[in-house]
Amino acid sequence: MASSIKVGMAAFVVLAVVAGFAGTSAAGVTCFVSCSIQIDDLTDTPTVQVFRNNQSGPPTNITSILQPVIVGETITFTISDLQNATPGTRYVDLLEDRAVVSDRVLVSVAPPTSSGFSAVTITFTSDSEATFPPPPPLATQVGTLLENGDFQEIPNLGLGPMISSFQVRSDAPESVPEPSTLLLLGGPLAGLLGMTWRRRRQRESRA
Length: 207
Fold this sequence. Notes:
By secondary structure, this protein is of the alpha+beta class. Helices cover about 25% and strands about 35% of the residues. It has a domain at about 30-170. The strands form two sheets. Strands 1, 5, 6, 7, 8, 9 and 10 form a seven-stranded mixed β-sheet that branches. The chain has a five-stranded mixed β-sheet with strand order 4-3-2-12-11, with no helix packed on it. Strand 8 (about 100-110) and strand 9 (about 115-125) form a beta hairpin.
């Protein structure tokens, strides 16, 4: 009888451990000490990488268990068990040409559980041509950022100390030709226009 109880308890522990890992994977990823997040939007489809910051050695890429949901140019993922995160919904707009809202980072932090941990859902939407989804009611805009093609830090998201860095790399603005380039392009064009004008004057004088 005692041996059967021990076997049953062992099986229960194994099932609990497996269920715990499955739950963490399905709900998102747990950062333990701290994580850094990078969203990359230089391609047609945005991607995300989450790195667990190790106390010794380089960060560990844990995106493989994050299971982000990608629909068109929108990516959504969840980080579980954040400590001291501020509940609520906040967003940051990324601007193109200093005026046009091109991308949006939307962060929703759930109220903490009795153990003091929160889950956060992060959505990044890029370059919607028809309609840009409006922020939900009671969402707070906590900043804007001008796209420059490099990874830039997104501040004020209220994710707490466990998220040490949150970076987004979005579309670089279209390059504007330098004055010297414009002169190089305009010189030959002016020469062609001058030759055309002189030939026309010669034909008119012969007539």
